[in-house]
TrEMBL record:
Domain Aldehyde dehydrogenase: from-to ranges: 15-469
Protein name in UniProt: aldehyde dehydrogenase (NAD(+))
GO MF: aldehyde dehydrogenase (NAD+) activity
Any Pfam family hit: Aldedh
Family per record: Belongs to the aldehyde dehydrogenase family.
InterPro entries (UniProt xref): Ald_DH/histidinol_DH, Ald_DH_C, Ald_DH_CS_CYS, Ald_DH_N, Aldehyde_DH_dom
PANTHER family: ALDEHYDE DEHYDROGENASE, ALDEHYDE DEHYDROGENASE-RELATED
Catalytic activity: an aldehyde + NAD(+) + H2O = a carboxylate + NADH + 2 H(+)
Keywords, comma-separated and alphabetical: Oxidoreductase
Species of origin: Agrobacterium vitis (Rhizobium vitis)
């Protein structure tokens, strides 16, 4: 197999090939051909990673939080210095634009810096009263499974708090986008992270998860991905009672009220929807618009979406690159065909572009019947459904009418409407009059079938700690 570059595993402080020298090809979303390869871990490689994490766990847990934090801050500085090269690699593998990849790495740097800076504070004991103290201890070895859509920042959201808390980690990076794990682990290694504390593996996902979760050494599973896979991993983790942090699928609604500023709402929805070609679990997928402004909104958003420049991700003029893989193209075809067959109206897009690469244009559907799959399955691509509503309770019911509960958005200036929507929408995160991802200091988690547990901020940090209650009877004076 001839490739321009190969990515190795990182086990016990050493870069190495898989023990059987097997590789998985990395396919370019632009050319649809292999351009790199990534080592595919064997059971022996995984056992070596588990053993390395075990050997290093005590010393790492006993290192002061201030020292651990300093390593993370140094790693964030080293990563910041190579953002341009790392972003180019990510864009080439995943298909997102260079600008999007650069923005993702900036958030990655911020996440390592925040967790490193706050490590000492978040590991400090706290007093309940003069007799009782809560001591915070690292929870143990973490198995972290990360996806291909935002590989750098989602690695950071798992790795940074786990390491700052004093846990060792076996990181399973995404085989489609291996460079993110490689760049981040390189930065940690250069920053002085002791060997064995982080081990990076790639390979056949089901084999890796089965093997790692069968080990009683693993105390925590953290996973971002589909609801179906999350449920399988939760079942596997039950055998050893591993703590789960599951950030799963989404099907995010946007409610556009009759007083919404469309000059603000339309570009905000478009930018966040079509970033990463819509392959984001936070991306809005269903827009509900007050009937009085529906026609104007539909015209504005369709015209603006039609003007989005699709092209090669390394072209500075490109606003939306290709989808990441052939599977996503097949899913778009299936969802659009199903909706149209059931009577939906195709306002824009709806067919793969007739050129090399996994290019799918912005697609807008209206008059979508309630039984269409696109309203119930996470689209995870550049498909947006738009529907009118007559009153706010109807909009809330419609917004909540999926099994997902990750993110929701709305636009209004009215205080009572704002209160009704923030109270009524079922989601782990709600954004008012804008759409944006969460920052490093914010907790983030889904409800319903979008998962459980929290990532980010203080609440996410606690996911990697055990709380030890110390009861001490003070001697009587």
């Amino acid at each position: 197999m001839s490739h321009t570059r190969s990515h190795q595993l990182f086990i016990d402080g050493v870069w190495r090939n898989a023990s059987d020298r097997a590789f998985i090809p990395v396919i370019s979303p632009v050319t649809e051909r292999p351009f790199a390869a990534v080592a595919s871990a064997t059971a022996q490689d995984l056992d070596d990673a588990l053993a390395a994490a075990d050997r290093s766990s005590k010393a790492w847990a006993n290192m002061s939080p201030k020292e651990r934090g300093a390593i993370l801050v140094e790693a964030s500085n080293l990563l910041a210095n190579k953002i341009d090269a790392a972003a180019r690699d990510l864009s080439e593998e995943q298909g997102k634009t260079i600008a999007e990849a650069t923005g993702e790495y900036r958030r990655t740097v911020e996440t390592f810096e925040w967790n490193g800076t706050h490590a000492e504070r978040l590991c400090a004991a706290s007093q309940i009263d003069e007799n009782r103290t809560i001591k915070l201890e690292p929870a143990g070895t973490v198995a972290a499974f990360t996806p291909w859509n935002f590989p750098a920042v989602l690695i950071a959201r798992k790795l940074a708090p786990a390491l700052a808390a004093g846990c060792t980690v076996i990181l399973k990076g995404a085989e489609e986008t291996p460079s993110a794990g490689v760049h981040i682990v390189e930065a940690l290694h250069e920053a002085g992270l002791p060997k064995g504390v982080v081990n990076l593996v790639f390979g056949v996902p089901a084999k890796i998860s089965t093997h790692l979760l069968a080990s009683p050494s693993v105390k925590i599973l953290t996973f971002t991905g589909s609801t179906a896979v999350g449920k399988q991993l939760a079942k596997a983790s039950a055998e050893n009672l591993q703590r789960c942090i599951l950030e799963l699928g989404g099907h995010s609604p946007v409610v556009v009220c009759d007083d919404a500023d469309l000059e603000t709402a339309v570009p905000a929805i478009l930018e966040y929807k079509f970033e990463c070609a819509g392959q984001s679990c936070n991306a809005p997928s269903r827009v509900l618009v007050a009937r009085s402004v529906y026609a104007e909104f539909l015209t504005r958003i369709t015209d603006a979406a039609r003007a989005i420049k699709i092209g090669a991700p390394d072209d500075p003029a490109t606003q939306m690159g290709p989808m990441a893989n052939a599977r996503r193209i097949e899913a778009m075809q299936r969802l659009v065909q199903d909706a149209v067959d059931r009577g939906a109206r195709l306002e824009l897009g709806g067919a793969r572009l007739d050129q090399e690469g996994y290019y799918w244009p912005p697609t807008i559907l209206t008059e979508v019947p309630s039984d269409a799959k696109v309203l119930h399955e996470e689209p995870f691509g550049p498909i947006l459904t738009i529907a009118p509503f007559d009153d706010i309770n109807e909009a809330i019911d419609e917004a909540n009418a999926t099994e997902y509960g990750l993110a929701a958005y709305f636009f209004t200036g009215d205080a009572l409407t704002k209160e009704a929507l923030t109270h009524g929408l079922s989601a782990g995160s709600i954004s008012v009059n804008f759409l944006k991802g969460v920052s490093a200091d914010s907790p983030y988690g889904g409800i319903k079938q979008s998962g459980y547990g929290y990532e980010g901020g203080e609440h996410g940090f606690r996911s990697f700690q055990n709380l030890k209650l110390i009861n001490e009877l003070q001697p009587s004076r």
